Amino acid sequence: MSDRKTEIMETAINLFSDKGYHFTSVQEITDACGISKGAFYKHFASKESMMLALLQRHHDHLLQEANAYQFGYGLTAQDQLIRKLQVELERSVEYRSFFNVLFTEFLPNEYSEVNVKMKQIQYALRSWHERSLVEAFGDRVKPYLSDLTTIMEGIIKEYLMLMLWQQQKLSVKKLAEFIVQQLSVIVQHDQEIVPVLPADFSNTSNELEGKAAVQHEVESMLVEIKTKTADDETAADALKKQIETTEMLLKELQCDIPRSFLIEALTKYLSHYPSLRIESEKILALWKDWKGD
To answer: 29 lies in which domain range?
Structure first.
């Protein structure tokens, strides 16, 4: 991303924080940056498209940095989860002004491209949380994975509210360790757990149905795959194949009459990659449910 584009976005967020998103004009953003309107529109189609770019940048940076701890650090599975949560908390605090604008200027019950994007990222983040929990604690958590994910996200949300809105100064490293500690206690004593949420629960089920839900899951998986990095040529080749296969799957789903044999073949191929197994199985289950298999 160019320095100029980054400068425009960061300047805009400061203005939005002071005046509000809806009361800040493109002219005011360009004046603050010392550029022309033409220079602004060279990078963004509109003020809203800039907000969409900010959302995507935050999400991509978060996953890129957090997923880096899966490689070359010699960490245990649970230590990896601690580092991932630490990154998530740090980036959320760093983007404090941005989130303040999002939550005060864009009401969840109103339709906007920004709200749609926020929901997509929320779903993608939940899928990432689910995969991270299975990687940390193993397959034993699958029967109550939806509940465990909800518990973890609830804790993260409440502590972030304390830090962002009540200005509580907390150590994100200690907080990440504390969260994983509590999750570990639940897992260690899970013999009598009776799940509240179904194993295949997904927030998307409340918003999307049928093929739209399947397509959304594939889009979310593609976003996450594209944020991954490869350490060597073999890993880079595998990553390229994952992206190409997922794009092919998405293209087929966008057809008026998707070919079932191809959808299932591509999804099963992706499930052979350990990092994509959980999401691929969810996609296949949603597809079969829609098809009535």
So the answer is: 1-44
CA distance 22 to 228: 35
**Do residues 183 and 133 lie in contact, with contact meaning Cβ atoms separated by under 8 Å?**
yes
| Nearest CA among 277, 172, 183 for reference residue 221 | 277
Q: Which residues contact 286 (CB under 8 A, 6 or more apart)?
A: 213, 214, 217
For 116, other C-beta atoms within 10 Å of its C-beta total: 12
Query: How many domains are contained in the chain?
Result: 3
Of 188, 223, 241, which closes a domain?
A: 188
Residue 124 is which amino acid?
A: A
Specify whether the CB–CB gap between 117 and 55 falls below 8 A: yes
pLDDT digits (tens), the chain, 293 positions? 568 888 998 898 888 888 888 889 999 999 999 999 999 999 998 888 888 888 888 877 777 777 776 655 678 889 999 999 999 999 888 888 787 777 777 766 677 777 777 877 787 788 889 988 998 999 999 999 999 999 999 999 999 989 888 888 999 999 999 999 999 999 999 998 999 988 666 554 445 567 777 887 888 788 778 767 677 888 889 989 999 999 999 889 888 788 999 999 999 999 999 889 988 998 999 898 888 76
Task: Return the DSSP state at 208.
Answer: -
| Residues 133 and 164 reside in one and the same domain | yes
Backbone angles phi, psi at 116, to 5 degrees: -60, -45
| 201 is a domain residue | no
Instruction: Give the separation between CA 165 and CA 284, rounded to whole angstroms.
Output: 40
Tokens 């639940």, residue located: 186
